[in-house]
């Protein structure tokens, strides 16, 4: 199989399989979460704080007072990485064209040079956060295989996308195929790894905020 055939496979059958597994996996995980149900809480609510869930969704996205100074690498690195990844996925012209072909929806793109710079920032942030984790005894002890797997499959699309755009390391067709394969690997693993927090993050924060308010404790 030559490079062009490999790219054709990545754009065709491999992408279709990855998208199918991704969608089925997300539906399955959401069904598991919302289908389990909870026992009715018959206890009287200890406080009346309407909107606690929604408020927690916002406050948990901000650093806890004092933590930005105590663990600036984790917080700043996390913000930079997530923002760069978000912009790369949804505001690069080539990606918008992909979404248009899939859904018919289209929106303005950002300048490629800006997206490229944010991708570099995201890659650097990922490397710094990993180095910080490895050099922090507590975080290193708490880290499991799933943490490093999630880090790897998140880095690969950013790195291969950067290399393919700048025509580095391998011939462009091969590098683009590798970029697509890395994205497909991410799609396949996302529903079944810690990366699923992409979909569960705000739901869990809302739920925790509502439960904490009902119990009369801070969320």
Automatic annotation (TrEMBL):
InterPro entries: NarG-like_sf. The chain crosses the membrane at residues 14-36, 72-93, 113-133, 145-163. Coiled coil: none annotated. Keywords: Membrane, Transmembrane, Transmembrane helix. This is Nitrate reductase. It comes from Sideroxyarcus emersonii.
């Amino acid at each position: 199989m030559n490079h062009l055939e490999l790219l054709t496979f990545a754009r065709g059958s491999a992408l279709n399989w990855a998208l199918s597994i991704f969608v089925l996996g997300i539906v399955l995980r959401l069904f598991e979460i919302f289908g389990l149900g909870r026992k009715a809480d018959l206890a009287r609510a200890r406080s009346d704080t309407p909107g606690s869930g929604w408020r927690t969704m916002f406050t948990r996205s901000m650093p806890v007072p004092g933590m930005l100074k105590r663990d600036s690498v984790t917080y700043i690195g996390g913000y930079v990485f997530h923002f760069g990844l978000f912009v790369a996925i949804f505001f690069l012209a080539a990606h918008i064209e992909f979404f248009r072909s899939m859904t018919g929806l289209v929106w303005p793109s950002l300048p490629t040079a800006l997206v490229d710079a944010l991708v570099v920032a995201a890659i650097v942030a990922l490397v710094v956060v990993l180095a910080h984790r490895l050099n922090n005894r507590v975080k290193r002890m708490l880290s499991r295989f799933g943490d490093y797997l999630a880090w790897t499959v998140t880095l690969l699309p950013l790195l291969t996308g950067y290399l393919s755009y700048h025509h580095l390391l391998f011939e462009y067709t091969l590098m683009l195929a590798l970029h697509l394969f890395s994205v497909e690997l991410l799609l396949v693993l996302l529903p079944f790894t810690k990366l699923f927090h992409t979909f569960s993050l705000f739901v869990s924060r809302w739920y925790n905020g509502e439960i904490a308010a009902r119990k009369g404790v801070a969320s």
